[in-house]
Design goal:
Layout (H helix, E strand, L loop, with lengths): L6 H14 L11 E4 L7 E4 L1 H7 L4 H11 L6 E6 L3 E6 L1 H10 L3 H8 L6 E5 L12 H18 L3 E5 L8 H11 L11 H18 L1 H15 L3 H25 L17 H9 L4 E3 L2 E4 L12 E4 L7 H16 L3 E7 L3 H18 L5 E7 L2 E2 L16 H19 L5 H21 L7 E2 L2 H4 L7 H18 L16 H10 L2 H11 L3 H20 L7 H25 L8
Parallel strand pairs: 5-6, 5-10, 10-11, 12-13
Antiparallel strand pairs: 1-2, 2-4, 3-4, 7-8, 8-9
The structure holds arginine.
């Protein structure tokens, strides 16, 4: 029997093999191995009850026969619980061998690698140009980045694409306002993107009040879309100004992209889409617009997916169709993950249904399309977060406040610390807190943005995780030993706190699997929190630097592995750690 990285898959295999040698069990028997409630053991195999019922057998007897067919192993003990569940309690030697074996980073990374690497495009962040990034964009940015890291960690080829909204109606209004005010884009003052946004706001109110302005703005947009050199030149500059403001935020957050194609990139790629969808009878002309209905769907049978407006203009849906085609043809994408607000669920559902029909008609495999959607960030009044005067909160202001608050925390704790070190720590703590406040929640839920809570040293927060990491570093500093240099020991996890921590460690692969399956980083976040908590109670109960070298080495090993998994896990979530805090 080998020590497998993912013990739940191994147990699953073992049980299935036993079942194939077991009388009364057919091929369709489907045992499920899952993490057990601690009271019962480490893992539990279910599925006996329903199978026994279907086939008129006694579930406990069936479980016993299965146990008898299992190979001898000194790595676990089995027992039967309730109506035929099989419990597995792992032995101390298994725990020890596992934590010993999957020690260093490269080993862990290698073991975490999938044997079926895929090419996955992650479409995330995707703000609209000519406006600043607001708090609404943080979720897509943070969640998208962590999914990219998660999938890369597992050996997938990830393409990060920032699908900027850089070709929308906002440009008509903005170009109109720029011309009306004779603004030079080379001279927008100290905060160019904010000036653009003000101009846009001004333009919007003009076009709302006066139909003449509105038609002027529309004309500017048509001119731009028809390639008017002056407007194109202005548009290009606006894009540059926007990108440089986005970049300063991405840099702060350690986020990067392979491409920022944006909607404008697809503007000359939409004609063939109309032709193909018409040819395959997937879309129809309805009141002058080109639309797709999905008769088999409850809502989309009547709610149209408009792919060309009645004035002939393309829209968000058109570019998204062209984008799928591009990513499939040019990049050979196996999967495309879109990270957006939950309010776009209908759009993506309609898009996915349309793509499915289109590719089926052409007899080509569609990439797997996944919409990773998220809820709203609420203010402490439980309404969508806004500034005091009702404006959207600028992301840059929020991130600056985070580091400022963290800076006060650091100074309060260590008043003598050098300023450069204070700033370094404050950045990690402040940005980590904002990030983790987001990633520690199920992404589909709304959450309340509360400074005090996210910066607290206690509870499921980034500072708590960072503190656990710093504490382990300090143990190794005091012990004057490197986490990777711990000698072998003949003492295995025995005491309750040792066993509990060891048990937590070996659930890492299972958590990674679940996080990937559901594309929900909070599973990993929750695990890291539990690991930190388990570590804390281990450390409170077990002195590490004891006389007995064997015990000491095992305990150091537990510390080292906790550190290791905490560091890998936080890195996937994009949270930086500290050696001292
Ligand atoms: N720019 C859009 C927005 O701000 C998000 C784009 C998401 N990606 C996509 N391929 N539709 O809402």
């Amino acid at each position: 029997m080998k020590i497998e990285f993912d013990i739940s898959s191994e147990l699953d295999k073992v049980i299935r093999e036993a079942a194939s040698n077991c009388e009364g069990l057919r091929d369709d028997f489907d045992p499920q191995v899952r993490q057990a409630d601690e009271r019962f053991g480490d893992f539990q195999a279910n599925g006996m009850l329903s199978y026994a019922k279907q086939t008129g057998q006694n579930p406990r007897e069936l479980a016993q026969r299965l146990i008898d067919a299992l190979p001898e192993s000194n790595f676990w003990e089995t027992s039967i619980a309730g109506p035929g569940f099989i419990n597995f309690v792992l032995s101390s030697s298994f725990y020890y061998k596992w934590i010993e074996k999957f020690g260093n980073s490269s080993k862990l990374r290698q073991e975490s690698r999938t044997d079926k690497p895929r090419k996955i495009v992650i479409d995330f962040s995707s703000p609209n140009t000519a406006k600043q990034m607001h708090v609404g964009h943080i979720r897509s940015t943070i969640i998208g980045e962590s999914l990219a890291r998660l999938l890369e960690f597992q050996g997938h080829e990830v393409i990060r694409d920032n699908h900027l909204g850089d070709w929308g109606t906002q440009f008509g209004i903005l170009l109109y306002a720029i011309k009306r005010e004779h603004i030079s884009l080379d001279d927008l003052g100290p905060d160019p993107i904010a000036s653009l946004e003000n101009l846009y706001r001004q333009g919007t109110s003009w076009t709302k009040e006066d139909p003449v302005c509105l038609s002027q703005a529309r004309k500017e947009l048509v001119k731009l879309q028809n390639g008017d050199p002056e407007n194109l030149n202005l548009w290009e500059k606006i894009r540059e100004i926007s990108m440089s403001s986005f970049h300063s935020i991405y840099k702060m957050l350690g986020v990067h992209f392979d491409h920022s194609y944006g909607e404008s990139f697809y503007r000359d790629k939409v004609e063939p889409i109309y032709e193909k969808l018409l040819k395959h009878n997937i879309c129809i002309i309805d009141e002058g617009a080109l639309v797709v209905f999905h008769p088999e769907h409850k809502r989309f049978a009547k709610q149209p997916f408009i792919i060309r407006k009645s004035d002939g203009a393309s829209n968000y849906a058109t570019t998204d169709l062209a984008t799928v085609e591009f990513r499939k043809k040019e990049w050979n994408a196996d999967q495309i993950i879109y990270v957006t607000d939950g309010r776009q669920r209908d759009h993506f559902e309609q898009l996915f249904l349309t793509v499915k029909k289109w590719y089926a008609a052409e007899n080509v495999d569609s990439p797997t399309l996944s919409h990773v959607w998220f809820g709203t960030i609420l203010g402490e009044d439980n309404k969508a977060i806004k500034t005091r005067d009702g404006q959207p909160v600028k992301l840059i202001d929020l991130l600056t406040e985070a580091t400022d608050r963290a800076q006060n925390m650091v100074i309060e704790k260590k008043p003598d610390l050098e300023l450069s070190e204070v700033k370094k720590r404050a950045k990690k703590i402040g940005l980590g807190a904002v990030r983790y406040a987001d990633l520690s929640q199920d992404r589909t839920l709304d959450y309340v943005f509360a400074w005090e809570k996210m910066l607290a040293m206690q509870g499921n927060t980034a500072p708590y995780l960072q503190y656990a990491v710093a504490r382990i570093h300090s143990i190794f500093r005091k012990a004057e030993i490197e986490p990777l240099d711990i000698p072998p020991t003949s003492y295995f996890p025995t005491s309750e706190s040792e066993r509990k921590l060891a048990r937590k460690l070996l659930f890492f692969p299972i958590v990674l699997k679940q996080t990937t399956k559901e594309l929900k980083p909070h599973f990993l976040g929750g695990y890291l929190y539990e690991l930190a908590t388990e570590f804390s109670s281990f450390y409170n109960q077990s002195k590490v630097m004891v006389e007995d070298k064997n015990i000491m080495h095992l305990r150091l090993l537990l510390c080292a592995r906790t550190l290791h998994l905490m560091e890998i896990g936080t890195e996937i979530l994009g949270i930086e750690t500290l050696e001292e805090m």
